[in-house]
Amino acid sequence: MSDAKGQDRGGRIELNRSGGGKLELKTTVEQGTVRQSFSHGRSKPVAVEVKKRRIGTGTGGSMRKPAVGGGKGGGERTGDEREVRRSARQDQGGKSGRGPVVLKPLTDEEKKVRLKALSEARKNEEEARKRAEENARRAAEELARRKEEEAAAALRKEQEAARRQEEEDARRKAEEQAARLLAEEEAKRKAAEETEKARQAEVQADAAADQVVVADEPAAVSGEDVAAPRPDSAKRPAKSTRRAEGDDDERGRGKPGRGAAKRDNRRGSKLTLGADDDEPVRGPSLAKLKRQRERERLAKVASNEPQVREVVIPETITVQELAARMAIRGAEVVKVLMRNGVLATINQSIDADTAEIVVSEFGHTPKRVSESDVEVGVEGAEDHDSDLKPRPPVVTVMGHVDHGKTSLLDALRKSNVVSGEAGGITQHIGAYQVDIGHGTPVAFIDTPGHAAFTAMRARGASVTDIVVLVVAADDGVMPQTIEAISHAKAAGVPVVVAVNKCDLPDADPSRVKQELLSHDIVVEDFGGDVQAVEVSATKKQNLDKLIEAIQLQAELLELKANPDREAQGFIIEARLDRGRGVVATVLVQKGTLRVGDIVVAGAQWGRVRALVDDHGRNVKEAGPSMPVEILGLDGVPEAGDVMSVVDNERKAREIVDYRQRKRRGQQIAATGGKATLEDMFNQLKAGEIQELPVVIKSDVHGSLEAIQAGLDKIGTDEAKVRVLFGAVGGITESDITLAQASGALVVGFNVRANAQARELARREGLEIRYYSIIYELLDEMKAVLSGMLAPEAREVILGHSEIREVFSISRVGKIAGCMVIDGLMKRSARARLLRDDVVIYDGELGSLKRFKDDVREVRQGFECGMSIEGYNDIRQGDVIEAYEVQEVARTL
Ligand code: GDP
Predict the structure, then answer these.
(1) Which of 139, 317, 420, 440 is most buried, by CB atoms within 10 Å?
(2) Is 504 in the pocket of ligand 1 (CB under 6 A)?
(3) Alpha carbon distance 138, 196 (integer Å)
(4) Closest residue (by CA) to atom 9 of ligand 1?
């Protein structure tokens, strides 16, 4: 197609006329190759053609530029014209085949046709080019897409490969792990088997007696040296049994798979096995396992067969306590309660009816008990006669005031020779023991008078065994002596008479004895059985004789008690000590009280922290008839309260709770039933009564009594203080509750409210008043009361006159001749006529005369004449009381 010649001559094939007029082909195209590179280093040769275009005068051509006219100014020709001309030339050349020809100018028609053809051709060419471009673009796009896809695929492949690799690794690892574990497991199992077999072998070896004696020479020991029958010796050659003297328990154990029978190897085996030894193969562990299984089995049996219990239900019980009595968890009781529509927490109390339902639901048998049943058994069992041992008598001294009771008690206390402290310092604890060296000691209650004795008796406390009746030899039997006698008789307590003050010159003991006869006290001198000792407290005469007489009396009474049991006694007195807390003196009646005992005393309880005797010494225990102070009670009990030792704290709390509830109930009942704020308001409105209810807490009983007495006095018929509750001890929450329920004022005398009580009082808007001086307390109460009084006038007594003579005057009536004995008489005053301290008439003074003159007033010490308006029954000896009704602000 192309040749070198052609290329040289212009690289284009063209038709040429040679000299002979022959047509020949000439190369008109330049041809070459280039190397095209592809990716990945590939390349290929590509043939390239460069087409030369000859327009107009060619090198070999002879064509002339025709002068083309045709309307267009001879300059430039348009491209279209050039194309048309070339086509025309070519057409001519082709047709004629002759040398240069002059082209005939084209007609307009032809031109048009040609131009049209040309434009079409150009259009087609353009379209073809566009298509080619489009194709090329598409191809490029396709290529790029493919490349992208290829790249993405490659990436995916890579990732996939990596993932697979990882998975493979993980799987392999897991397999390895499993294989290793399996192998270990297997090894362990085998080891266990081997060990067990070895043990069996050893047992057999033991049975084969002493045939097995292996030299303890380690070098000589080999796997085959084991003489005991061992079926698996081939498998476990390192096993060795060492049986040296006294070394029975020491065993060498072989490890499977360790064949070397050398000493080191053997040791190594032993060590390795020891380290690998599993728990269950050891003897004690097996036993442990067995025990555990047994426990589990028993538990199962127990759970399958629920135990039916008898559950004691008091009137109220906390959920927790009820659960404890059924031996189940509190939450389960709560659940059952919820099912029954009762919402209660573990610490809440439920009533007996609800508790009964719960108990039945759990399949147990409920047993209802009365609330007071908690006290059952507090006093302990009855003592057998064989357990009883003689005990010292307990004595109370009684008698008329000033007959020397206190002096006698003091003298007796100081005569305590055994303690070696005669005349020394003694501690006042409310009771003490006197030991004069022979016979049993005597316990004296240190509170003289029958008030204490009666108070104790009123509480059912028969503390006293013997009454010492003190009668002053110079004074004889007096009213309180008689009272004392009747109290002793009422209590069935024998009397020993102490005729005191015998040192006085006017002492007449026989007169005393005589007088006693008329009160059924027949002394021995008169053939009776009452001992009478003539003593002198101040001179300390015959005190030992008095003690002896008491001891003799005690012997007759055969006083006995069992000291070897839990203690029981009576509270003699109790107080709140600032430093030591609650201090209570107990007279032990039976049993022995020890430090650490849990005691219930009245409505209080506590663990005995310390015991202090009447000499202020700490003691560890106190037997029958021994007075001791106990420390550790949580509240102040009352004199005469029974004290008992109980088993545990729970029991103590139970009893105390019950007793406190009971006492509170009694208090409220005693103060006239329901005392609510509402009631009080209603009564106030109706004007029936004006009362100030108070709750009083005090530090000692003495103050409490004084306050109560004082409050009684300041009241009138219209306004008075009503003590709802009075006790010794700090103010507690329950006091506030009580006060709140009754709209009462809380009074603390030398005591304070605890934090909870304060908080409750604050919440309820209750007032707590503190005092430390009794009259201040009473004054304030008076002020409070007067504030409550209706604003009305009060009467003021002016004075009294005694009627000395009565004169009858006609038309005027009776005139009393009087002497003003106190105060004064006023003419306009009101008057009362008193006969034997009883008001017999209340009216107005008619006239007041001094001699014959009317006067306005007559003062004390002067005589006067008076008449009472409208009343004539006046007699000599009557008393006229003059008084006024003053319209003043009234304070009680
Ligand atoms: P109480 O009220 O019964 O306790 O009597 P006291 O013990 O307070 O005594 C009253 C008064 O009697 C005191 O002044 C004592 O000194 C006095 N007294 C007591 N015993 C005797 C005694 O034996 N002889 C004399 N001479 N006086 C006595």
Answers:
(1) 317
(2) yes
(3) 84
(4) 404
pLDDT tens figures, 199-213? 666 656 555 544 444
Query: Ligand 1: distance of its center to the CA of 444 in Å?
Result: 18
Among protein residues, the one with the nearest Cα to ligand 1's atom 6 is 404
Task: Give the position of tokens 């000291």.
Answer: 563
Question: Are the C-beta atoms of 748 and 768 separated by less than 8 Å?
Answer: yes
**Residue 297 half-sphere exposure toward CB, CA atoms < 13 A:** 6
| pLDDT at residue 587 tops 70 | yes
Q: How far is CA 772 from CA 581, 698, 699, 748, 775, in A?
A: 18, 10, 10, 8, 9
Q: Is 537 in the pocket of ligand 1 (CB under 6 A)?
A: yes
For 855, counting Cβ atoms within 10 Å of its Cβ (0-12 exposed, 13-18 middle, 19+ buried), the class is middle
- Ligand 1: atom nearest CA of 539 is 23
Among the listed residues 857, 856, 827, 865, the one whose alpha carbon sits nearest the alpha carbon of residue 844: 827
CA of 400 relative to ligand 1 center, distance in Å: 11
Structure tokens at 470: 């003190």
Compute the distance between CA of residue 552 and CA of residue 554 in angstroms, rounded to an integer: 5
Q: At CA 529, angle to CA 526 and CA 533, rounded to 5?
A: 75
Q: Which atom of ligand 1 is nearest to the CA of 410?
A: 7
**Distance from C-alpha of 727 to C-alpha of 699, rounded to nearest angstrom:** 9
The region that residue 190 occupies, defined by phi over 0 for left and psi between -120 and 50 for alpha, beta otherwise, is: alpha
Over residues 79-117, the pLDDT tens digits come to 444 554 554 444 444 444 444 445 566 678 878 888 888
For ligand 1, atom 22, name the residue with the nearest CA. Answer: 501
The torsion angle over the Cα atoms of residues 148, 154, 160 and 161, rounded to 10 degrees, is -170
In the chain, % of residues over pLDDT 90: 16
503 close to ligand 1 (CB < 6 Angstrom): yes
- Residues 380, 385, 389, 394, CA torsion sign: positive
Look up residue 570 and give its two tokens: 């009576």
Rg value, the chain, Cα: 66
**Ligand 1 pocket: which of 397, 400, 401, 402 to mutate (most atoms within 8 A of CB):** 402
Alpha-carbon span 821 to 804, nearest angstrom: 11
Check: CB of residue 241 under 8 Å from CB of residue 216.
Answer: no
Q: Name the residue of 409, 538, 546 whose CB sits within 8 Å of the most ligand 1 atoms, as the mutation to test its pocket.
A: 538
